[in-house]
Amino acid sequence: IIPLPSQVNEIKAKGFTLKDGCTVRVSETGNESENMHRNARMLINGVANAVNIAMTESSKKRRGEVVLSLDSTLADEQYSIKADSRSVIVKGGSAKAVFYGIQTIIKALPANCQNIKKVTLPAVQISDSPRFAYRGFMIDESRHFFGVDYIKCVIDMLALHNINYFHWHLTDDQGWRIEIKKYPKLTQVGSWRKESITEAGGNNFDGIPVSGFYTQDEARQVIAYAAERYITVIPEIDLPGHMLAALASY
Q: In this predicted model, what pLDDT tens digit does every residue of 206-231 receive, in sequence order?
């Protein structure tokens, strides 16, 4: 599992059998209730995508369940997991921490095995918290535009690896990628270039046109998608340097 949890201790007991019909139960209400139930849906969808096992959310306590709960004794991003034959209990200092515990469960599943009918998770106790408060990833879309669907896939991968900041590089000399309604030429002109250089410091170009930008509604969609996965989006808008796309427009 990447990142490797801080503490992993095996228990001398039978493991938890994950199969169709297993349930997810949220034992918390209050201010974090909406986030915790969204976490439950994330777990259900993550398991279905990984191994095609159908889980459901339930409010009733039963054998063969995954329990999601908050624990005020844990730090904000700290979580614990206890798995045995009866249940898997994920506790966190916040809904965000519980989400990270869910990612650990998903990463413990076999990869790309859609024909599996059940998976046995080992009996184990896990305690984990991040070493660094800021865990970031940057993608440069000024030079290479990718689009909303691709960026959502990137965000999913960041969430799976407990990344909590997405640095979104949207403007530079090579292209302006965000709609500014007051200055429409920034995207009408600045989001286009006729070709790209093939090597740093060289004079060779590939002759392939590059274009594309995000509308403000698309940017909001990406920000909301990231927020549901506890990721903060940091936009990079370069001023006053790196301005050739803007200068070409105005």
A: 999 999 999 999 999 999 999 999 99
pLDDT of residue 166: 98
Identify whether the C-beta of residue 121 lies closer than 8 Å to the C-beta of residue 106.
no
Structure tokens at 237: 């808008």
Per-residue pLDDT tens for 115-145?
A: 788 999 999 999 999 999 999 999 999 999 9
> What pLDDT is recorded for position 60?
93
Exposed e or buried b for every residue in 181-208, given b needs 16+ CB within 10 A? eeeeebbeebbbbeeeeeeeeeeeeeee
Nearest by Cα to 183 from 245, 140, 242: 245
Backbone angles phi, psi at 16, to 5 degrees: -95, 125
- Within a 13 Å sphere around the CA of 96, how many CA atoms are in the beta-carbon half? 16
CA–CA dist 180, 40 (Å, integer): 37
Quick check: 136 and 165 in contact, CB under 8 A?
yes
Q: Is the pLDDT of residue 73 over 70?
A: yes
In eight-state DSSP terms, residue 104 is H
The secondary structure element, H or E, covering residue 57 is: strand 56-57
CA dist., res. 78 & res. 94, Å (int): 8
Task: State the pLDDT at residue 112.
Answer: 67
Strands laid side by side in the 87-92 sheet: 7-10, 124-128, 79-83, 87-92, 65-70, 23-26, 56-57
Separation between Cα atoms, residue 7 and residue 10, nearest integer Å: 10
Listed in sequence order, the DSSP H helices in 69-211 are 95-107, 148-160, 185-188
Q: Is the whole-model pTM more than 0.85?
A: yes
